[in-house]
Amino acid sequence: MPAPSRLDARRRRILFEHIEAYLFVLPAVILVGVFDVLPGFAAFLMSLTRWGIIYERFAGLDNYRAVLDPAGARFEQFMNSLGVTVWYVLLTVPIEMFLALVIAVVLYQGTSGRGAYRVVYFMPYITSVVAAALVFEWMFDANFGLLNWAIGLVGIPAQEWLREPDGVFGMIGSAFGLELQGWMTGPSLALVAVSIFTVWHFIGFQTVIFLAGLTNVDRELYEAARIDGAGERQIFLRITLPLLSPTIFFVLVLATVGAMRSFSQIFVLTNGGPLDTTRNVPMLIFQTFFERTAVNGIGLGAAMSFIFVLIVVAITIFQFRVLGRRVFYG
């Protein structure tokens, strides 16, 4: 029997390497399939059915029509929650990114004790959302909260914070004798309070990401710019920001999707109240799915979730198509 050639041995080695690689990936594939793909498929099937206390019948697209019917109550609920979600994203994402970038740049400048500062800024992110939210709930307490005590020192009256449904723009306008109506009143003070917690919780994670991006910028570019007479402002605008744009875009997409999917902090701090002014779409889906099963809550909640997924995907595609073109991959 002829001895196997070197080519055959090389092919067997490559085959074994491929099998080994697939075996390493297999546990992750199983976890994603069991806890993501299969539940998603089951939720889609639920969105096509009608439920009472138990399964009743196949409903086709009736649940989607009920949610998207402009004359229906479900449509009004969904649009109101979508508006809250948009306000929540606008209140959190820009502020998170701005503060995180400023902190990252300051730490990158060679501040003494950078390691300790990184730990301090990252600690909120690894802290349990529920535990931290309970602490913030005490800080925002209208009667005994630390925040009302602090603003009282500068003559600002105590606020209801998590129980205040009035819009912040309307409240500020009233202080100056202006009466704002409708959407012009802005997000509720309760939503602003939840947003403050969200910024505090996620700013550390984004700071670490920006620091990682800054370390990839060649310091020789800074030295050459300073030799040519460029100031720190010019260096930041002409060198740091363009070379950091891939990281900024990555954080923007991640933060936007994360803010749209936020649930835990809203559930703990306000449970969607007061007067549904902090009930974003994930909170509405939860309440519809788990608390209103007697009126086909399961089917309607599942349909809302898939409509919301399409909205999130559309926004992400828009970011890649429009903002992604401005990213500089130097």
Distance between the amino and carboxyl termini? 58 Å
Going by helix content, strand content and strand pairing, the class is mainly alpha
Write the element-wise H/E pattern from the N-terminal end onward. Answer: HEEHHHHHHHHHHHH
Spatial strand arrangement across the major sheet: 1-2
Principal-axes shape call: globular
Number of DSSP helical runs: 13
Helix content range: over 70%
- Outline the biggest β-sheet: 2 strands, antiparallel
> In terms of quaternary structure, what is this?
single chain
- Percent strand equals under 5%
CATH level-two architecture of the largest domain? Orthogonal Bundle
CATH top-level class of the largest domain? Mainly Alpha
On the 0 to 100 scale, the average pLDDT is 87
How would you explain this protein's 3D organization?
With 330 residues, the chain is mainly alpha-helical. The protein folds into 2 domains: 6-47; 71-326, MetI-like (MetI-like fold). Helices cover 71% and strands 2% of the residues. It is built from 13 helices and 2 strands. The protein has helices spanning 6-47, 62-68, 73-108, 114-126, 129-139, 146-152, 168-175, 189-215, 219-227, 232-260, 264-269, 281-291, 297-323; strands at residues 49-51, 55-58. The protein has a two-stranded antiparallel ribbon. A hairpin with a 3-residue loop joins strand 1 (49-51) and strand 2 (55-58). The mean pLDDT is 87.
